[in-house]
Amino acid sequence: MKSTDKTTIPEDLKLSDYLCFAVYSANLAFGKAYKPLLEKLGLTYTQYITIVALWEQDDQTVGSLGEKLFLESNTLTPILKKLEAMGYVERQRDPADERQVRISVTKSGRRLREKTREVSLAHATGLAPDEFVRLQKTIVTMRNNLIESVHAGE
User: Fold this and answer.
1) SS3 sequence of the chain
2) pLDDT 10s digits, 57-75
3) Whole-prediction pTM value?
């Protein structure tokens, strides 16, 4: 969705009026709210979303997992090493292409999924279920449009 509207930004615009700051600070609030839930499981937020992505699609390359999580491999690799040390994932060279490392969930990693059923902040957001879904879809659309605009400018 391309916008040709050239609105001027008012000079008295406050930080709280910036959408980017609202999204950024909401992300920080999510992190603080998730922290006590995930600490009980011994996970950080990035470890949690990594394993959630692997539950969704097991046996992925580090590259494809990084794309889904919007993480570079140099950021993702230490997370995967920690999850492997915890016994939740296995890392193996792809026999078809030795340059690729494949990640798969272990039995222990699959059992962890049952423990995470309680990890939800939907209620804490104060949004009705339909509002929650609508907001999530709107944010995904906004993110994808921003990514597209960056690629269009390259």
Assistant:
1) CCCCCCCCCCCCCCHHHCHHHHHHHHHHHHHHHHHHHHHCCCCCHHHHHHHHHHHHCCCEEHHHHHHHHCCCHHHHHHHHHHHHHCCCEEEEEECCEEEEEEEEECHHHHHHHHHHHHCCCCHHHCCCHHHHHHHHHHHHHHHHHHHHHHHHCC
2) 999 999 999 999 999 989 9
3) 0.84
Residue 31 φ then ψ, to 5°: -60, -45
Q: How far apart are CA 52 and CA 116, in angstroms?
A: 10
Residue 102 CB neighbours (<10 A):
19
Q: Where are the domains of the chain?
A: 15-118, 122-154
Question: What CA–CA distances, in Å, run from 61 to 44, 52, 101?
Answer: 21, 15, 6
Predicted confidence band at 5 (pLDDT cuts at 50, 70, 90)? Answer: low
Half-sphere exposure of 42 (CA within 13 A, CB side): 9
Topology given in CATH for the domain delimited by 15-118: Arc Repressor Mutant, subunit A (1.10.10)
d(CA 109, CA 93) in angstroms, rounded, equals: 19
